[in-house]
Amino acid sequence: MRILIAEDEPVLASQIKTTLSSEGLTVDVAVDGAEAQYLGETEPYDVIILDLGLPIRDGITVLKNLRSGGSDTPVLILTARNDWTDRVDGLDAGADDYVSKPFHMAELSARVRALIRRKAGKATPVFTKNGVSFDTRTNQVMVDGVSINLTAQEVAVLSYLFHNSGRLVSRNELSEHIYQYEGDRDSNTIAVFVNRLRNKLGSDLIETVRGRGYVIKVVA
Ligand code: CA
């Protein structure tokens, strides 16, 4: 799952990035409104965290432009503590949720996970299929009740496929959702990660559609 953070305060941006990265999310940072809009329009993010007070172009304008351009990516806005009108303006402009500064990182990341789940149409935080369970809160993976160690990339691939279960996902789409903007994207490595997942989790969880991609059949 790939997240854009649009935040011009470097310390805060870096704290958010560190927190979300440690939870297995792939994170890009935009430092002004123009960059936020460009990345939001050209990269397939799963959630955008958008500070409203951005230089060059303010967050509300960025949000309105993204929505009028057809983007339906979930957007969580960061607002000043006591400015309730900002929250109203943001929600009315198409934001899905908000957090007021200052906030606890745990609350922000819980809200991000909830937005990811909601976009995927899943109400509960644990996916279970063919004896494999994946807890989106902790990234813990279990097979028949036994905890399995996965690398960060393996978790990223598994998480994306579970959140998109029932839908064929191409290697290219997977690579766009697990690598950063400036990351070295090689869709061939995706096949390596999937093979390792099949070895660790059983061969019947992730189905390969030859030449097209991968699918986890609908999760109950
Ligand atoms: Ca700001």
Describe the model.
It is a single chain. The chain is an alpha/beta fold and 220 residues long. The chain is 42% helix and 20% strand. It contains eight helices and eleven strands. The strands form three sheets. It has a five-stranded parallel β-sheet, with helices on both faces. A four-stranded antiparallel β-sheet has the order 6-7-8-9, with helices on one face. It has a two-stranded antiparallel sheet with strand order 10-11. Helix 1 (10-22) packs across helix 5 (105-120), helix 2 (33-42) packs parallel to helix 3 (59-68) and helix 7 (171-178) packs across helix 8. The radius of gyration is 18 Å and the shape is elongated. The mean pLDDT is 94. It binds calcium ion (CA). Calcium ion binds at residues 8-9, 51, 53-54.
Q: Could you estimate the helical fraction of the residues in percent? A: 40-55%
Order of SSEs, N→C?
EHEHEHEHEHEEEEHHHEE
* Span between termini: 21 Å
Pick out the low-confidence regions: none
What is the number of helices? 8
What's the rounded overall pLDDT mean?
94
Largest sheet: 5 strands, parallel
Tell me the radius of gyration: 18 Å
Structural class, please? alpha/beta
Read across the widest sheet, the strand sequence of neighbours is 2-1-3-4-5
- Give the overall shape, derived from the CA principal axes: elongated
Query: How many DSSP E strands?
Result: 11
Tell me the strand percentage band: 15-25%
What ligand species are in this complex? calcium ion
